[in-house]
Specification:
With 444 residues, the protein is mostly helical. The protein has one domain (25-415): Proton glutamate symport protein (Orthogonal Bundle). It contains 18 helices and no strands. It has helices spanning 5-13, 17-23, 26-44, 52-79, 83-115, 137-143, 149-155, 158-176, 181-227, 236-259, 264-281, 288-297, 302-315, 318-334, 341-354, 364-375, 383-388, 390-415. The longest helix is centred in the middle third of the chain and has 47 residues, at 181-227. Residues 421-444 have a biased composition (Basic and acidic residues). The chain crosses the membrane at residues 21-45, 57-82, 94-115, 156-175, 200-222, 242-260, 344-361, 367-389.
C-alpha cells in the first residue's frame, strides 16, 4: 500500500544525515574533534598511532592545494591591480612582518627571563648532535629566482613560485591594457582561465574542509598519545612561557586592529577556523587554503590577500620567534649560562633574519632554534629536551603565525583604496552568505 502523500512529502523534506552534517558550523566540528582526540590520546597512549594515516591524509590534502592556490590566486590578484599599487602592498607587508617578528622575539626572551624555564633541569648526556642548519641568507635570496618553475612547484619552493606568479601577473596586467586588440583578447582568455582555476581550487578546498574534523581528531590523538601528560611536567615552565608570549602577541594584534579601526570581534570570529587549523596541522603553508577563505569573509580583495598570505606563511613567524627566544633562554638555564646583552641581541637578530629562510611547515622552528643557540655560543645538547615537546609548542606558535598573517592582511587592505569591502552584519535571526560560494556564516 502506498504511503500517504503527506508522509512522503515530510520524509523528502527532511534533510539527510550528510546534509545535516554539512549544516553544522565547521568550528564546532573541529572543536569536538579536538576534544575527542585529546581524550583518545590519553586513553590509548602510543597505541593510538595506528590512526596516524588519517591525519597524514589531511595534511597531504592541504599541502596538495598550496602550490596551485599560490600560483593561481597570486597571478589573478596581481593582474587585478596596477604595478604601483602592488609595490605599495609588498612594501607594507614586508615592514609589518619584520617589525612584528622582532617584537615577538623580544616578548619571548623577556617572558623567559622573567619565568626562568629550565632552571634545575639536567642536560641530557651523550647527545651532541648539531641538528639541521638553515641555508645562508644569500642562498635564500638567489633561490627566489627559479631555474625551473615546474621544479619549484614540485619541490614546494614558495618564494620561487611567488616570484614567477608575480612576474606572470604583472605581464598579464600590461597585456590587458594593450592597445593591440589581439594581445588584449589573449590576455582576457588567460585571465578567464586563471579565474576559473581559482574557483576550481576553492571548490576543492570546501570539500577538504569537510574531511578536516577526521584529520584533526587523528593528529591530536597521536600527538597526545605519544607525548603523554607526564612528558610535559619537566618542561612546564617553557611551555607556559611560550604560550604566555603567544597570548600577549595576539593581544598586540587586537590593539593594532583597533588602531586601524577594524572590528576585532568580527576578525577573530572569521579567523578562528584558520587559527584552529594551524594549531592542529602545525603548518602555516598547509593552512593557506583556510586562511584565504577567512580573508575573503573579512572583505579583503584578492589583490591583497593573494600576495600577503603566501608571503606571510614564508617570512612571518611571530609565534616561532617567541618560541626561539624562550627556548634559547631555556637552553642557557639548563647549562647554567647567564646570557649577556650581546648574546640576547644576537639571538634576536638571528631569529628575525632566519624567519625569512625557514618554510611554514611543521618543525621548521627547530632550525631557527639551532641557529639562535649556535649564534649565542651555547651547547646544542639541551635542544634535545625542547625537541621532546616540540609538537606541543609548534601548535601554539603556528597558530600565532597564521593569526599575524591574517591581521596584517586585514590592516594592509584597510590602507589600500578599493581593497577592502566591509561586510555587513546579517539581520537578527537570519544568516547570510559570507562568500559567493553560498556558505553560511557561523552562528554567534
Amino acid at each position: 500500500m502506498d504511503k500517504p502523500d503527506s508522509v512522503t512529502s515530510s520524509e523528502s523534506a527532511r534533510p539527510s544525515l550528510w546534509r545535516r552534517y554539512l549544516e553544522i558550523s565547521l568550528i564546532w566540528k573541529l572543536s569536538v574533534a579536538l576534544v575527542l582526540g585529546i581524550v583518545a590520546g590519553l586513553i590509548f597512549g602510543p597505541g593510538i598511532s595506528v590512526i596516524q594515516p588519517l591525519g597524514d591524509v589531511f595534511l597531504r590534502l592541504l599541502m596538495m592545494l598550496v602550490m596551485p592556490l599560490i600560483l593561481l590566486t597570486l597571478i589573478a590578484g596581481v593582474a587585478s591591480v596596477s604595478p604601483k599599487t602592488l609595490g605599495r602592498i609588498g612594501g607594507k607587508a614586508f615592514v609589518y612582518y619584520l617589525v612584528t617578528t622582532a617584537f615577538a622575539m623580544s616578548i619571548g626572551i623577556g617572558l623567559a627571563l622573567l619565568m626562568s624555564p629550565g632552571a634545575g633541569l639536567d642536560m641530557p648526556a651523550g647527545d651532541e648532535d648539531e641538528g639541521e642548519t638553515a641555508p645562508p641568507l644569500s642562498e635564500v635570496l638567489v633561490d627566489i629566482v627559479p631555474e625551473n618553475i615546474f621544479g619549484a612547484l614540485a619541490e614546494g619552493q614558495v618564494l620561487a613560485v611567488m616570484f614567477f606568479a608575480l612576474c606572470a601577473g604583472v605581464a598579464l596586467a600590461y597585456l590587458q591594457d594593450s592597445s593591440d586588440e589581439r594581445l588584449a583578447g589573449i590576455a582576457a582568455d588567460i585571465r578567464r582561465f586563471v579565474d576559473g582555476g581559482v574557483e576550481l581550487v576553492f571548490l576543492i578546498i570546501r570539500g577538504v574542509l569537510q574531511y578536516s574534523p577526521i584529520g584533526v581528531f587523528a593528529l591530536i590523538a597521536v600527538v597526545v598519545g605519544e607525548t603523554g601528560s607526564d612528558a610535559l611536567l619537566p618542561l612546564l615552565q617553557l611551555t607556559g612561557s611560550v604560550y604566555a608570549g603567544i597570548f600577549v602577541q595576539i593581544l598586540v594584534y587586537a590593539l593594532m586592529l583597533l588602531v586601524f579601526r577594524a572590528p576585532v570581534i568580527r576578525f577573530f570570529r572569521e579567523a578562528k577556523e584558520p587559527m584552529l587549523t594551524a594549531f592542529v596541522t602545525r603548518s602555516s603553508g598547509g593552512t593557506l587554503p583556510v586562511s584565504t577563505q577567512a580573508a575573503e569573509r573579512l572583505g579583503v580583495k584578492k589583490g591583497v590577500y593573494s600576495f600577503t598570505l603566501p608571503l606571510g606563511s614564508t617570512i612571518n613567524m611571530d609565534g616561532t620567534a617567541i618560541y626561539v627566544g624562550a627556548a634559547t633562554v631555556f637552553v642557557a638555564n639548563v647549562t647554567g649560562t647567564e646570557l649577556s646583552l650581546t648574546q640576547i641581541a644576537t639571538v634576536a637578530a638571528v631569529g628575525v633574519l632566519a624567519s625569512i629562510g625557514t618554510a611554514g611547515v611543521p618543525g621548521a622552528g627547530l632550525i631557527m632554534l639551532t641557529m639562535a643557540v649556535t649564534a649565542a655560543g651555547l651547547p646544542m645538547a639541551p635542544v634535545a629536551l625542547v625537541a621532546g615537546i616540540d609538537a606541543i609548542l609548534d601548535m601554539g606558535r603556528t597558530m600565532c603565525n597564521v593569526t599575524g598573517d591574517l591581521a596584517g592582511t586585514r590592516m594592509i587592505a584597510k590602507t589600500e583604496p578599493g581593497m577592502l569591502e566591509e561586510p555587513r552584519d546579517p539581520p537578527a535571526g537570519k544568516l547570510e552568505d559570507s562568500t559567493q560560494d553560498g556558505r553560511k556564516a557561523d552562528d554567534l
